[in-house]
């Protein structure tokens, strides 16, 4: 009996192997394509990279508060001053100086300072007692006729030959509804958030040189002075151009 020819069987086996190889190739290609599909990027919080640089967070940064623009040297000098509404609690005549009062003045709630004022010829003692005034509170403390003075009350004046002492002097008046400790500022501009701790005499001289009475109002360099709450600072009985000091 003649032996069977193995060739057809080998051909069939080779074809089967080729089909298996083709199927494996297709499955591998399909898996690779799926792995290459990118995932949609999501916003991430900012983190520091290995080189110290920050990655984009995708979150909007809060806006910084606006800083008032400088108003020039004159306004900058005024902003260094700590001028407040104050109340005179007690008034005594100076023991040795005939022109001076020794006052106890509340410059902030619970803060009382001694102020020596040269008002004895111009303002009756009873009129000064309990009165609201404007006081410069960051001048260097001084001694006047042996008495310490820790602030200065502001008053306006102008020469008058017929008046006692050759001048008329009037205290600066805050609004009657102002509170003790209210800051005095230039109208339309907020009070300085950080007046200097101690105002130099040179800066104060520049500021005082621009304080004037205009239309019954206290002004600085032509601009009205007000309290932080908006009430105007007034001066009664003085002509326009009178100095304030």
Task: Give an account of the 3D structure.
It is a single chain. A hairpin with a 7-residue loop joins strand 8 (155-159) and strand 9. The chain is an alpha+beta fold and 245 residues long. The strands form four sheets. Strands 3-2-1-4-7 form a five-stranded antiparallel β-sheet. It has a four-stranded antiparallel β-sheet with strand order 10-13-12-11, with helices on one face. Strands 9-8-14 form a three-stranded antiparallel β-sheet, with no helix packed on it. It has helices at residues 7-35, 73-79, 125-128, 201-208; strands at 83-93, 101-108, 111-117, 132-136, 142-144, 147-149, 152-153, 155-159, 167-171, 184-186, 211-214, 217-220, 223-227, 243-244.
């Amino acid at each position: 009996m003649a032996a069977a020819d193995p060739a057809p069987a080998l051909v069939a086996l080779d074809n089967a192997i080729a089909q298996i190889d083709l199927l494996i190739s297709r499955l591998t290609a399909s898996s690779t394509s799926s792995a290459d599909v990118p995932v949609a990027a999501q916003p991430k919080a900012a983190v520091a990279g290995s080189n110290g640089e920050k990655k984009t967070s995708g979150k909007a940064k809060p806006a910084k508060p606006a800083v008032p623009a400088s108003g020039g040297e004159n306004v900058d000098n005024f902003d260094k001053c700590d001028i407040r509404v104050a109340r005179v609690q007690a008034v005594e005549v100076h023991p040795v100086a005939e022109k001076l009062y020794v006052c106890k003045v509340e410059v902030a709630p619970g803060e009382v300072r001694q102020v020596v004022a040269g008002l004895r010829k111009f303002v009756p003692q009873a009129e000064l007692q309990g009165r609201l005034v404007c006081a410069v509170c960051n001048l260097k403390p001084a001694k006047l006729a042996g008495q310490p003075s820790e602030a200065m009350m502001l008053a306006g004046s102008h020469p008058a030959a017929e008046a006692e002492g050759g001048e008329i002097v009037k205290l600066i008046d805050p609004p009657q509804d102002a509170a003790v400790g209210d800051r005095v500022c230039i109208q339309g501009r907020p009070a300085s958030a950080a007046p200097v701790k101690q105002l130099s005499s040179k800066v104060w001289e520049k500021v005082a040189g621009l304080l004037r009475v205009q239309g019954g109002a206290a002004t600085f360099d032509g601009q009205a002075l007000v309290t932080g709450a908006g009430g105007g600072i007034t001066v009664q009985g003085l002509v326009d151009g009178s100095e304030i000091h």
